[in-house]
Automatic annotation (TrEMBL):
GO terms for molecular function: ATP binding; ATP hydrolysis activity; DNA binding. The lineage of its organism: Bacteria, Bacillati, Bacillota, Clostridia, Lachnospirales. InterPro entries: ABC_transporter-like_ATP-bd, LytTR_ABC, LytTR_DNA-bd_dom, P-loop_NTPase. It comes from the Bacteria. This is ABC transporter. SMART domains: LytTR. Residues 248-354 form the HTH LytTR-type domain. Residues 4-229 form the ABC transporter domain. Gene3D superfamilies: LytTr DNA-binding domain (2.40.50.1020), P-loop containing nucleotide triphosphate hydrolases (3.40.50.300). It comes from Vallitalea longa. Pfam families: ABC_tran, LytTR. PROSITE patterns: ABC_TRANSPORTER_2, HTH_LYTTR.
Length: 354
């Protein structure tokens, strides 16, 4: 049974279209993450919580309109904003104990603090804590409430590694106890790494980010054809080796810039276009990610995700966040973190002999 439905929902502000005719359904215990602008996420959260009304379409929460739902169930939707207000002078323990009593939560406070790695700072005032620690407190508060639906803006953006792992693990836990989650992020990586269904919302509408496993056949077909070419070349003793000089073209204004592949840290797709990440800069490329993969695979580039192609010489760490969530940390200037699909993990291990 669904907990939330958007049916052809639009929202306009004057002459500006903020949300344009989107439809989706979230079932109980399901997590859905959406890559969109901060303005879009705030608009959707405000419509769901009945602060503003859709210009067109209908929002249905547990088979009721938001207005009717909130008349009796205002505690059954949890909301975590990117920047939250806290009772800053309270300690972590006092703050969460307050909500524990408010929502009549039955679990021991020590268990909650332990689950979110807050036990060692339980007696610290909230105003002395880091942004990452405060985000863990927000999610702990949401678990105490145990809402039917949790809306969360930027669950892991700009968090330290420990906090990112804890939040991702607890989102999986929340799903397992029946909490539905709608998460928003401005970055593709954070959207993908949340355990659930991932979407992109932009001027083209709401579109699912296809799972790598669903496209494995297509990729395998490409890989097979490449392998056959390699084998035939090896068996043909009379054929001289081809000498290729690979340069990847990008265009800036009226100039064409050619990059040596070893200059490229990774390549990503954003809204259907490919971008080369070189140092701290991005350069748009007219080639598709699939064609770039074919050109660069033989010199150490790896399709780690449907939307990413990484230079394996730049990979410093492989991080496991949850059972189905992985990242690659690069040793580039930005210490970039990019997603690794579950279906690609074994292939990467074979390539790296790990």
């Amino acid at each position: 049974m669904s907990i939330l439905r958007f049916e052809n929902v639009s929202r306009e502000d004057g002459n500006t279209v903020l949300i344009d005719d989107i439809s989706f359904t979230i079932d109980r215990g399901q997590c859905m993450s959406i890559k969109c602008t901060e303005e879009m996420s705030l608009t959707m959260m405000n419509m769901i919580t009945s602060k503003i009304m859709p210009t067109k379409g209908e929002i249905i929460i547990d088979e009721k309109s938001p207005e009717d739902y909130f008349k009796k169930n205002n505690k059954n939707i949890g909301v975590i904003y990117k920047e939250e207000g806290f009772y800053d002078r309270l300690t972590v323990n006092d703050y969460l104990t307050f909500f524990n009593r408010l929502f009549n939560y039955k679990q021991k406070m020590k268990d909650v603090l332990t689950r979110f790695a807050l036990l060692d700072i339980a007696d610290s005032r909230i105003n002395s804590l880091s942004y990452s620690e405060k985000k863990r407190i927000s999610l702990a508060r949401a678990l105490i409430n145990k809402p039917d639906l949790l809306l969360i803006q930027e669950p892991t953006l700009n968090l330290d590694r420990q906090s990112s792992r804890i939040i991702r693990e607890n989102i999986v836990h929340m799903k397992s106890i029946g909490i539905s989650i709608l998460a928003f992020s401005v970055t593709l990586e954070d959207t993908i790494l949340i355990d659930g269904d991932s979407y992109i919302l932009n001027e083209k509408g709401l579109n699912i980010i296809e799972n790598e496993l669903e496209n494995q056949k297509e990729n395998d077909t490409d890989n097979d054809s490449i392998t056959q070419i390699d084998i035939s070349n090896e068996n043909d003793e009379t054929e001289l080796p081809n000498i290729k000089i690979e340069k990847i073209p990008t265009k800036i204004d009226d100039k064409i810039i050619l990059f040596n592949p070893m200059e490229i840290d990774y390549i990503e797709t954003i809204d259907g276009s490919c971008y080369l990440n070189v140092g701290t800069e991005k350069f748009q490329c007219s080639l598709t990610l699939s064609s770039l993969e074919k050109r660069l695979k033989h010199i150490g580039f790896f399709r780690c995700h449907r939307s990413y192609l990484v230079n394996l010489q730049r990979v410093r760490e492989v991080i496991t966040w949850t059972r189905n969530s992985y990242s690659l940390i690069l040793d580039d200037k930005n210490k970039s973190s990019i997603p690794l699909s579950k279906g690609r993990m074994e292939e990467l291990k074979q390539i790296l002999n790990i």
